[in-house]
Amino acid sequence: MSLKKLLSIGMAAVISFGVQTKVNAYFLDENTIGEYFYNIRIIMLWNTRQMGLMVKGQIPFDTETLTHWAKNVAVGSHQIMETLIPLGAEKQFAQWNKRENFENFEEFKARLTKVEEESLKLAEVSKTAMMVKEIEPQFRNLVKACKSCHKGTIKPTKTKLEKLIHANSADAIEYRQAVMETIKWNVKLMSVMVKGKIPFDAETFAKTAEFVVFTSKMPLEGFIEEDNDQGDTNAKPAIWENWTDFKAKMAQLQEETAKLANVSKTATTMKKVTPQFLNTTQVCKSCHKKYRK
User: Fold this and answer.
1) What CA–CA distances, in Å, run from 129 to 57, 126, 133, 187?
2) 1 confidence band (pLDDT: 50, 70, 90)
3) Are 221 and 178 in contact (CB under 8 A)?
4) Are 3-163 and 187-291 the same fold in CATH?
């Protein structure tokens, strides 16, 4: 999938005229934009930290993996720019700002755009890199852009950028929970369409489904071996006791979300996507029943 396509997926279509108002009203009540924004940030920080581990030589250098992480950061920043900002506007972001009022909203957008640009450059460089030293300068540029964005505009998260090379189970738990909440937020958008709470919008549904496909590939790396069921988590020990089965269920989630995205590309009515949507949510429920406290 091209970077251009990756940056067009997700919830960008939510801001299209016709469904924006109803989606906005529904989600501002039940899933605040601020919470979703926080989860996207955690995902971006985790992927940046993983790249930091690779640059520091603490994990093996791999161009495909590095490109994947860089794309995750790019998609995350674009998700905020194209979806959360139009939906939430200044009021929702004020709670994450250091000031009482979001007086530097335009500055924030400019700095976030810089993060997106630098992550895209890193993804391109990493495609053909043969060793760390070829990508390290661009990685440093990305880290600098991230720090600038965090320092100047928003409150720090639990996972600080300065802790890039200090992985622990708490970070992994926070990351995977952020991914799961991000998936949940997007599945809920599709769900309210299926239930008729907001009008069916084919473009919005299709792009949302494709973003879920993208994020469904993220959670597994957050279940690090040392973690088990320790920390503030609802994960059962059964995950690590039945790791092969758990991985199979995560793969099944990717398969079913991919089918949903494929069906939704040409669907013009809710009836066309509902069966596969229900199949997808059933996979989620099955996994939760067995592996979540």
Assistant:
1) 15, 5, 9, 36
2) very low
3) no
4) yes
DSSP 15: G
The CATH homologous superfamily to which domain 3-163 belongs is Cytochrome c/b562 (1.20.120.10)
Q: Which of 79-83, 106-110, 221-225 has the lowest mean pLDDT?
A: 79-83
Q: Which amino acid, residue 9?
A: I
- What separation in angstroms does the CA of 246 have from each of 16, 175, 220, 290? 37, 18, 9, 9
Instruction: Specify the CATH architecture of the domain 187-291.
Output: Up-down Bundle (1.20)
Amino acid, single-letter form, for residue 251: A
- Percent of the chain that is helix, strand, coil (3-state, to 5): 75, 0, 25
Domain map (residue ranges) of the chain? 3-163, 187-291
Give CA–CA dist 100/165, Å, rounded.
Answer: 32
**Sequence-distant (≥ 6) Cβ neighbours of residue 144 within 8 angstroms:** 118
DSSP secondary structure of 29-51: HHS-HHHHHHHHHHHHHHHHHHH
User: Residue 231: left (phi > 0), alpha (psi -120 to 50), or beta?
Assistant: left
Total-model pTM: 0.78
Q: What are phi and psi of 18, to 5 degrees?
A: 120, -35
Q: What are the two backbone dihedrals, phi and then psi, of residue 96, each rounded to the nearest 5 degrees?
A: -100, -5
**Which tokens belong to 204?**
């919005």
What number of CA atoms fall less than 13 Å from residue 222's CA on the CB side?
24
Distance CA 212, CA 11 (A): 10
CA distance 42 to 31: 17
Q: What mean pLDDT value characterizes the chain?
A: 77
